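Subject: design request, 311 residues
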């Protein structure tokens, strides 16, 4: 690989959006570019935190192979996959028809089918953090404390408030489920675990569902229990009758309506853009006011720690 191509590849790697990821073409392992040097590009796999140097010399070997034609993605060896993914960021290489090719005309520097934008590359925990931060900022800006405050909100703000609260709830529930499964591996019967913010224990709930009809009816017959005591209307069969006869639904169903608000879409791009704006503002918060806020947070944490220790 000549100096010009190598310099371009390093430049494109350095220009990748912070937080964006590449994925290996076959195994779909996500990784991020950590650094570049004269003889290597250092990547870190986010599914294992494994760091790996991608050597310029090996890029050169791949470059020589591509001079003679294309390289099918399906034929890539595991060790070559990250090289191929990074290579497609260059102005000289592209991924076309499931193959890596050297094509200056088709290549679009800095773009790659294996590149995942930062907004999409976030982990579930990072998404919950970001959504919670956006919701907290919105609550603070709108000064929402109770239901009375919601009455005064304009419709757009109220919609944003609902969408963000819904996203936080959904994301947090996913994290809770993951944590629950891990805690079940650590909790013994009747055991409790204590953290700084609360206590958990292993609880067992019994859920029942009837055995198959033949087994149930046989058990009733064996004990002389009339079958009609347990036989009832099958809703599925009743729906079939409604669909093929002139029987009216109101004659066999009591119908009620529940009115609720359904979130039909979330604008992730807008949320991420807003989040980046908040991040930039926080990064610029280096004046006396910012220092005072940090001191206040430290004081609150100290008081919390003292209270927990005393308790």
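Subject: RE: design request

Done. Sequence follows.
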């Amino acid at each position: 690989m000549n100096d010009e191509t190598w310099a371009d590849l390093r430049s494109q790697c350095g220009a990748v959006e912070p937080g964006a990821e590449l994925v290996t073409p076959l195994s779909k392992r996500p990784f991020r570019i950590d650094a570049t040097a004269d003889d290597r590009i250092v990547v870190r796999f986010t599914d294992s935190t494994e760091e790996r140097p991608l050597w310029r010399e090996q890029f050169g070997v791949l470059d020589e192979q591509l001079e003679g034609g294309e390289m099918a993605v399906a034929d890539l060896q595991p060790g070559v996959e990250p090289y191929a993914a990074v290579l497609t960021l260059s102005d000289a290489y592209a991924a076309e028809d499931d193959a890596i090719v050297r094509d200056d005309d088709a290549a679009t520097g800095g773009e790659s089918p294996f590149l995942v934008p930062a907004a999409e590359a976030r982990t579930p925990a990072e998404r919950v953090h970001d959504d919670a931060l956006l919701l907290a900022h919105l609550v603070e800006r709108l000064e929402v404390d109770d239901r009375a405050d919601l009455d005064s909100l304009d419709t757009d703000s109220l919609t944003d408030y609902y969408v963000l609260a819904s996203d936080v709830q959904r994301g947090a529930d996913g994290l809770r489920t993951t944590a629950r499964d891990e805690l079940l591996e650590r909790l013994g019967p009747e055991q409790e675990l204590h953290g700084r913010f609360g206590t958990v224990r292993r609880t067992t709930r019994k859920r029942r569902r009837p055995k198959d009809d033949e087994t149930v009816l046989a058990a009733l017959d064996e004990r002389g229990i009339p079958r009609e005591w347990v036989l009832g209307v099958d809703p599925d069969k009743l729906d079939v009758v409604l669909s093929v006869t002139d029987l009216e639904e109101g004659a066999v169903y009591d119908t009620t309506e529940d009115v609720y608000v359904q979130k039909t879409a979330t604008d992730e791009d807008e949320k991420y853009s807003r989040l980046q704006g908040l991040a930039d503002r926080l990064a610029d918060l280096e004046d006396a006011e910012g220092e005072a806020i940090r001191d206040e947070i430290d004081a609150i944490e100290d008081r919390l720690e003292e209270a927990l220790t005393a308790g």
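The two ends are 65 Å apart (CA to CA).
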